């Protein structure tokens, strides 16, 4: 067992591998040690990523009506959550929405569609969107998230110009069937493997606050470490009405900080992203979170509203960080145009938070 979090950071900087006992010690550390934990984790974050924050922008290509029964999701089979439901955006609508996030400083656009997994026709459709985005913004990374992949589909997305594929493990293998019955933990691992074998950067994370124990949380984090993905999005459960997990409130800001610290110490050189639910659960500790995570989503998520894009950019600046790849054309005051595009393309309606 380490003597201090600084000692543990030294160990990780020297190429050490986080043990289960050390991981549990992070999650169970007392409140009076929280700032020491963040300071030590911040050393790892800065060693790998310097003073930058990677800004990601999400475009929801198709919303609702999913046949899967993931208990955390407002788009699940049988959900009564009040969300917008719509079919595929067009290439132009996708490009317009992506352009808003890019203009505000995003260096990665995430194209997401609900469903179990894409048909080959869906792959053709999304490939066209990727090609269009890349032709207009060649320096911007494009990440695709379409669910479970079939043989050959990852290669087709790669050939269209996609840089990454997102598919989260979400929770520990030992409790996956408590969260979802329509597919398995192994199905998710298989899709991440397919993406990696095709040469796509793997983006795979988890959702915390779903009733998992400390041990299960460590299991999930170590499974992500074993996958060797390039980025880990950490989502914080938003337990809204109409899902089986409504009323599940297990997180507080300090717990969320410890979870981000666990991700950083377990995977010191991996991109760690503060994702869905950060505004709700980290609350005023979001600036501390940036000393552990080096990535966030700008603005809204799938069926949920995030904080204003200008507030996200102020959060980065006020915390002493800079936006990765920000140039003179980044416009932090672009919130009005972003809202205009979203309303025009999706149609005015009521959104209800769900997990990204």
From TrEMBL:
Its cofactor is [2Fe-2S] cluster; [4Fe-4S] cluster. One of its GO terms (molecular function) is 2 iron, 2 sulfur cluster binding. It comes from Knoellia sinensis KCTC 19936. Residues 334-343 have a biased composition (Basic and acidic residues). The lineage of its organism: Bacteria, Bacillati, Actinomycetota, Actinomycetes, Micrococcales. Binds 1 [2Fe-2S] cluster. The cluster is coordinated with 3 cysteines and 1 arginine. Homodimer. The keyword Iron-sulfur applies. HAMAP family: BioB. Its EC number is 2.8.1.6. One of its GO terms (biological process) is biotin biosynthetic process. Residues 324-356 are annotated as: Disordered. This is Biotin synthase. The gene is bioB.
């Amino acid at each position: 067992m380490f003597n201090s979090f600084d000692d543990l950071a030294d160990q990780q900087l020297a190429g050490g591998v986080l043990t289960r006992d050390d991981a549990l010690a992070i999650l169970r550390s007392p409140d009076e040690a929280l700032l020491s934990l963040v300071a030590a984790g911040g050393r790892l974050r800065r060693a790998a990523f310097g003073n930058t924050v990677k800004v990601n922008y999400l475009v929801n290509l198709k919303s609702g009506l999913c046949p899967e029964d993931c208990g955390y999701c407002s788009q699940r089979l049988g959900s009564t959550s009040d969300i917008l439901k719509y079919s595929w955006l067009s290439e132009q609508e996708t490009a317009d929405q992506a352009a808003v996030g890019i203009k505000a400083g995003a260096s990665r656009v995430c194209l997401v569609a609900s469903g179990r997994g894409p048909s080959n026709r869906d792959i053709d459709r999304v490939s066209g969107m990727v090609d269009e985005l890349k032709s207009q913004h060649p320096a911007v990374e494009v990440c695709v998230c379409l669910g479970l992949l079939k043989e050959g589909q990852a290669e087709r997305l790669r050939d269209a110009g996609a840089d990454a594929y997102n598919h989260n493990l979400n929770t520990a293998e030992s409790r996956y069937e408590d969260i979802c019955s329509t597919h398995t933990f192994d199905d998710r691992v298989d899709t991440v493997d397919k993406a990696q074998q095709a040469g796509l950067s793997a983006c795979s994370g988890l959702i915390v606050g779903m009733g998992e124990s400390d041990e299960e949380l460590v299991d999930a984090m170590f499974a992500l470490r074993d996958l060797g993905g390039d980025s880990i999005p950490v989502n914080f459960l938003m337990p809204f009405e109409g899902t089986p997990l409504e009323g599940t409130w297990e997180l507080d800001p300090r717990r969320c900080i410890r979870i981000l610290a666990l991700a950083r110490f377990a995977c010191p050189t991996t991109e760690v992203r503060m994702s869905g639910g950060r505004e709700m659960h980290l609350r005023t500790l979001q600036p501390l979170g940036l000393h552990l995570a080096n990535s966030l989503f700008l603005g809204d998520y799938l069926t949920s509203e995030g904080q204003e894009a200008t507030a996200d950019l102020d959060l980065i600046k006020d915390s002493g960080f800079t936006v990765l790849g920000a140039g003179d054309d980044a416009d932090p005051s672009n919130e009005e145009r972003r809202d205009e595009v979203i309303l025009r393309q999706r149609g005015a309606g009521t959104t209800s938070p769900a997990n990204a």
